[in-house]
Amino acid sequence: MVKYLSIFRTHGMTCEVTVALFALVLPATHVFAADPVEAVPPVPDVPSLQSLRGMTPPDPSGTEGGRKVDLMTDYVVNRSAAILLGKALFWDMEVGSDGATACASCHYHAGVDHRTTNQINPGQANTNANVGSIFNKPFTASDIPGDVPSYATKSGGKGGPNYLLKKADFPTHVLANPLDRNSAILYSSDDVIGSQGVFDANFVKPNQPRFDKCTQQPDGIFQVGGVNVRRATGRNAPSVINAAFNVRNFWDGRANNVFNGFSPFGNRDPDAGIFVTNDRSGVAVKVRLALNDASAASQAVGPPGSPVEMSCGGRTFADIGRRMLDSLMLKQQRISSTDSVLGPVSGARRPTYRELIKNAFQPRLWNATQQVSLGGAPYTQMEANFPLFFGLAIQMYESTLISDHTPLDAYLQGDHTAMNAQQVEGMNLFLGKGKCVSCHGGAELTNAGSRLLFHPRERIERMVMADNLTTLYDNGFYNTGVRPTSEDLALGGTDAWGNPLSFSRQYNTVLQGGKIPDPLDVDVCTFEAPLSAAIPCDATLKPNVGFRDSVDGAFKTPTLRNIALTGPYFHNGSRATLKQVVEFYNRGGDRRGEDASNTSGFDHPAANQHNASNLDPDMTPLNLTEDEIDALVKFMEVALTDPRVAWEQAPFDHPSLVLPQGHIGDENAVTVKPASPKITTRQAMDANIQLLPIGAEGRKVSEGPLQPFYNDL
């Protein structure tokens, strides 16, 4: 049989599940109140959307020291114990060097961060470092690099560190005519709405029992009047809900599909490995680990070592283990007795993390009687393997955070009353005129999800760009022109060893005889744009030429599930409402000029970047009417929201959490922490907010459900 090229794009997969319906009861005046059920149009043909109901992320499997292994056979002895460990570690504030920063600090609200003070980054990912350190940098070309004028936010505020965001600060790019991307720019800033992390400091040693010992240093960027404030990340925090389905994680995909038990970088990290005991000698030996389908584990071990997000600079994961192992689980925090996971251990005597690890993981991973060497320093085997336990446990916890009880899921399974006429119209626009499904396909509503787990040979795609020339790109990663490419290369960047993050660029390296760190097996017969319209396809074909690629400025497509609750939107947090997002797409994005114009921001784009902005070809004006925009927004707001997420019902319940919400004072002056031997540089005093513990039953009716970001401004 001769196999010819397919010239269509596939999205997602189907699965057999049992229909399970739910009721969402909210006050009639609430933003998520269900609209009255009207005459609903016939069910459209929706081959690109599937229900998520019943789908679960696969357990990781791979190799250890060359032998085949899988999660439950070779690492975990008790799944429930591992999930409990993962939830505790995810929410524990003591994981941060300051004893006040948890993974959950940036993912506490429907999986994202809704804080509104001290969240601004000046755009440090910019390829021009001088520009990247200036807050409120305008869009105009006349500005001098290195100039530090006092530009204002859109609302006229000072902005910068410890600034309180306002409704009037969004969107951060404003045109005279919202329908015309080439109309006059009234306001634009390259600042990013990120997440506040920790103060600038260097690690000395883990102090017992709560803080690390660190030396502070003056921060030239994140400071108010010479007083250090918490640093803010250079990208907005994506949701962790449904993230376990993603082939890669982080906006730039650097959290590898392969978990090495040590760092986010999979096979790329030459020093990665875990320590195992294979006999009764009590000696642990280091072996390479490569667990596939484990990007959530790779992601989990990134932030705890970041000097911006959670750590004093130079702290290793073994150092985290040394401080945490004999600490009581969540000892600073309260746990509801009805917590769906932590409830059974919420009493007066909580277990230590050492006990939890022994309950969850095989003894060969922690029972060595002799120390091992890491970076020339001695650690116990359990300390050295702490990133392995941390990553796998959090992946297993996040694999329970699947939001598959939306009205859309019910509708796709046959309950045609689950969505009203306006929402169905919005769904049809999502699938058709709005072109949303081109990037947000599949059950998870992202092309970066499970379809690529089950079809790994389709992780690279070839398509025709706006200039009618073909290019390679990484499936699930797109440049939509939110900002000029030069402000953040994203997927076009490299890792610490100089390897491209992009699969497409690695594939080009293979075609030219080079070696690459990520395993790639590409089926050219699945390319949307065929190599030849006349020649039958050979799936084993390896072209001997380098292809043009479109990866600079490409970001991972986020899931749209619970999107009403996960603002601010885009990688830079530049939009506060879904309507602002749809208006952006309706005008074809924010690039200037024709569809094929160069808005990369580079004076001299790379020779192979004919369409130097790398924009997705679907980024053209949509010509949606106001009624159509409203229908599309209503579909996303209501039909894609899981009420269990909105009401924080199991499995989305959680322990208490103290959150730094900026600092006492404002953007002009802050209150300084009292001097002490631990504080050698002036630091601002935190202005904290308290999240109460929530049990499996969820939030009280009097509290109401979680709110959209815009409502919190």
Automatic annotation (TrEMBL):
Residues 48-67, 589-616 are annotated as: Disordered. GO terms for cellular component: cell envelope. InterPro entries: Cyt_c-like_dom_sf, Cytochrome_c_Peroxidase/MauG, Di-haem_cyt_c_peroxidsae. This is Cytochrome-c peroxidase. Residues 81-139, 229-416 form the Di-haem cytochrome c peroxidase domain. It is found in: Cell envelope. Transmembrane segments: none annotated. It comes from Pseudomonas vancouverensis. Keywords: Oxidoreductase, Peroxidase, Signal. It comes from the Bacteria. One of its GO terms (molecular function) is electron transfer activity. Residues 1-33 form the signal peptide. The keyword Signal applies. The lineage of its organism: Bacteria, Pseudomonadati, Pseudomonadota, Gammaproteobacteria, Pseudomonadales.
